[in-house]
Structure formats: structure tokens, C-alpha cells
Amino acid sequence: MLIWSIVAATGAFPRALFPTVGEIGRAGWALWASGDLGADIVHSLQRAVAGFLLGSIVGFGLAVLTSVTSAGRRLLQPVLRLFAPIPTIGLVPLAILWFGLGESSKVTVVALGVFVPVWISSHAGLSSTPEDFLKAARCLGANRWLTLYRIVIPEAVPDVIAGLRVGAAMAFVVIVVAEMTGTTNGLGFRIYQAQLFSQADQLIFCLVVLGVLGAVSDQLIARLSAPLIAWSVEER
Hints:
The chain is mainly alpha-helical. It contains eleven helices and no strands.
């Protein structure tokens, strides 16, 4: 905030494009007082959470298939590795074409953005179980599914959590683009309207709100998952 204030005070940039901290704060308060900001946050959170849950479940499920089954490694993994580099933002027109301008297209786009990091990280974790652990499980008579449930998945939990944290951040990145088309609410819509009418103060404030929501979600996942990965911290 101090650096921003100093740069704004120099007058190096037009005030309309580089507002002061006070102007940004007043614009944010006006949005909140009107009720628009609160409603936008609720709508964006609903879409982001729905997309995050859907993308996480599908990403982890496919990671199990591609890491522990031979059919998944041969058939699914090559397809998913081709799909992963496709920018999620580029899929927005396709989602609208398939699902229309309603909530389904927005949730789908967010889910696709979350799916990629969750799948990649979960697949890496599930595929890297120490061979000694697997041999010990076989010697003790554990079958394939018991080994997966009791050894492979617990060993991969730190990687899965890392993927979920990246996926949560991606949810708030993608929701902005998803809400710029075919909606009249949400932070993405508010950012688009602010850009359209050259309201830099409102635009910047909405970006700050998105950053705060992303940081809170990341810390929430970290706090909730801490008991599950305490053993990995102790090992280090």
C-alpha cells in the first residue's frame, strides 16, 4: 500500500487509471454499501466451490485409475497428458456452446481448471509409493485394494493436498473469465463492467477481494489437512 501510494503521488500515471489507495477503498465501500459486492462474492464463491469439488473428485478418481491400473496407464494417461496443456480459458467458448450461458457452463469451466493440477499432483503422489512398502504389504497378505487404501493413498496425501491447494487458486482465476460472459453477477462480471466503464478503482478493489478469497481458501485447506500430513512434516 505504501509503494502504491508513493507511485500514485508522483503523478507518473493518470489518476483515472492509477487511483490512490483511498479512492480504491472508497470505491470498495460504495460497492459494499450498495449490496452489489456482497452478492457478487456469494455468487462467485458458490460457483468456485461447486467447480472445485467437482474437479477435485474427478481429478483424484482418474489419478487412481492412471496410477494403479494398467488399463488407466495405457488408455487414460496419454489422453489426459494431451488435455492438460490446453488453457482452461480457451475452453470457455466450448463450455458455453455445450451447456449454454447458465450456471452449468461456469461450474464446468472451473472444474476443468481445478481438475488438471489435482490430477497431475495426485497421479505423481500415487505413482511414487516406495517399493519397499508395496513388498511389505504383499508379504503380509494385503490384496490390491487393501494396499491402495492402507498404503498407497495415505502415502500420497501430501501430494494430493498440494494439488488441491493449487486447484483452489485456479478456481478463483478461472471464475473471473467464466463470469465475464452470460451473467449479471459475480466478481468476474463486476471486473468486466469496471473495465468497460474505465472504473479502475472498482476493478482493483475486486482484484484485491479475489486475492483475499484465494488466500483464505488456501489457508483453510492447509489447516483442515494438517492432521493428515503431520507424519510427512515429522519425517522432514
